[in-house]
Amino acid sequence: MKAEREPQIAIGDDGDALLERYEFSHDPFLPRTPGFKFFTPQRKNVLAQLHHLARFSDQTLTVLGPLGAGKSLLRQALVASSNKESVQAVVISGREARNAKSLIAFIAQAVGSEAASEEAVLERAEQLYTTGVNLHLVADDAQLLESAALQALADMGQIGEKFAPRVFLFGDEELARRLESIEAPKEDWLHTIELQPYSLDETRDYLAQRLEAAGQGIELLSDEQVEAIHSASGGWPGRINEQGRRIMLEDIDEEPRPGRPRRAPLPMRSLVALVLVGLGVTAAWMMGDRTPEPARTVLQLPEPVVEVDVSTAPGDRPEAVLVMPGDEDLMEAVSAAPEDVELVQIESPIVASPPPVEAPAPGVPRLPDSTAPAPVQAPAAPTAPSPPAEVPAPAQAVPTPAPAPAVAATPRSTPSAGGAHGADWYRQRPASEYALQLLGTRSRQAAADFVNRHAGVRDMGFFETRHEGQPWFVVTQGAYATRQQAQQGIAVLPEALRKQNPWPRSMASIQQSLL
User: Fold this and answer.
1) Residue range 296-318: average pLDDT?
2) Looking at CB atoms within 10 Å, which of 80, 112, 138, 213 has the fewest?
3) Is 166 in a helix, a strand, or coil?
4) Which of 43-57, 258-272, 368-382, 464-478 has the weakest average pLDDT?
5) Regarding predicted confidence, which is higher, 14 or 174?
């Protein structure tokens, strides 16, 4: 059944009450707050996967999530972070162009086609392709499109030609049911990604940035209130806004509860000013009959807290993006992107995982992994005291523990010859085979650590390629005869690897990207 959304709390007088009581610079729970950016690592992984599949796959790409899950924000980031020189994106709203006729007419007008027909749109897509430009059709609220409109998008994206438009559909569970009735142009024509809700820590970080952007901080909410907001919202950003507003409004007129510290009736900055003035008056009174020299007290009150960027610690709500280290250009493009029609394309491979035991180059940052514990460094063996002229003996290396037993074998997967597979192994595989891509990172050590953490999984390997002119390390698992077997192989992976959203990638595309 389609998830129902909690009723929206009206802004109006309630918004004024929040501003007056907490001295906010603006209502922190507005759906679209200017300049607010919050993008979790998990959502960034999905964004990279969409870009990679758009470049190396011809499948129709579907992103599913309930109302308030942040789909529109992800759609904006997809369009804004694409390469405007190699992609023309047409953004379609299921609320405005629902039937096939109006949909095709809108696309034809956007691409400059002389006629409003599928054939004319495809002819224009071929013309763009000859100039080095790919056509992307991005449909928001796609569950509202009529079946004929969905069929038209599927048909245009699956004509089997290189110039075929890449189709992206963003919608809720209703869209998934609607797509089941579509006449599939070919096998494996659809790739679906389901968005995940925020964790409790991500909910807390999201609320903190919302409040800080409005001039206050997370200290306005107790841990119990944050947990209540997370539980009632299910971790979906749109509902976090609603529940946060509700709890803070209830707190305005609520009497102090036992065991909970009472808030000061005045803001802290005002209390500090009153205390300082009181101290000055007391000092003057204690001076007795002496006439003090005229003096003037200047109170330096703190400046309002401005918006800050949250880094790669775990933490989409509808309109927020987290600026990750090294992605400042990406996020600037996101905030400037228009809402209707945008031009884009990116060439960023899917986020992969860490490589073997090789040490990273000096100065290369490690990619943080929010799900895995930090590796524990073995203490150095103590050395016996020796005369100054002698050199102490080096500490003995700690033996490496034997790998854990292998997990259940995956279909058509060749056993590893010991350790992780390297570039030579990928070159020797038949181009028709498939592997499951798990992770992508700029750090060789991060890829190695990821492989070592899953040493019990068969056929783990990683290779080096280039992305945006810099080294990029991709971790894969398995060697499967067909895409269908690779899809089946996902089900037998450990849960920790399934959470990485693995997806089948052909050996041919891997071999083309090897250095």
Assistant:
1) 42
2) 112
3) strand
4) 368-382
5) 174
CA distance 493 to 504: 13
Render 328-354 in DSSP notation, one character per residue: HHHHHHHHH--SS--------PPP---
C-alpha angle with apex 374: 370 to 375, nearest 5 degrees?
Answer: 145
Q: Is 465 helix (H, G, I), strand (E, B) or coil?
A: strand
Joined together, the tokens standing for residue 294 give 């005229």
Is the distance from CB of 40 to CB of 202 less than 8 angstroms?
yes
Question: Scanning the structure block, which residue is given the tokens 């438009």?
Answer: 165
Burial of 407 (0-12, 13-18, 19+ CB in 10 A): middle
d(CA 165, CA 123): 11
* Nearest C-alpha neighbor of 316 from the set 214, 170, 439: 170
Tokens 């579907």 sit on residue: 62
Distance, in Å, from the CA atom of 500 to the CA atom of 491, rounded to the nearest integer, reads 13
Phi, psi of 138 (to 5 degrees): -115, 115
The full 3-state SS of 281-322, as one line of letters, equals HHHHHHCCCCCCCCCCCCCCCCCCCCCCCCCCCCCCCCCCCC
Alpha carbon separation from 377 to 144, 380, 393, 446 (Å, rounded)? 54, 9, 20, 15
Residues linked to residue 69 through DSSP beta bridges, in sequence order: none
Query: Which class for 40: exposed (0-12), middle (13-18), buried (19 or more C-beta within 10 A)?
Result: buried
Strands (E), 164-227: 166-171, 190-194
For the chain, the average pLDDT equals 74
Mean pLDDT of 313-319: 40
Output DSSP code: residue 421: B
φ, ψ of residue 333 in degrees (nearest 5): -65, -35
441 φψ region: left (φ > 0), alpha (ψ -120 to 50), beta (else) = beta
Q: Which two tokens stand for residue 218?
A: 């997370």
From the list 167, 490, 510, the residue with the least C-alpha distance to 350 is 510
Is the pLDDT at 50 greater than 70? The verdict is: yes
DSSP at 133: -
Widest CA span of the chain, in angstroms?
A: 100
DSSP one-letter code for 115:
S
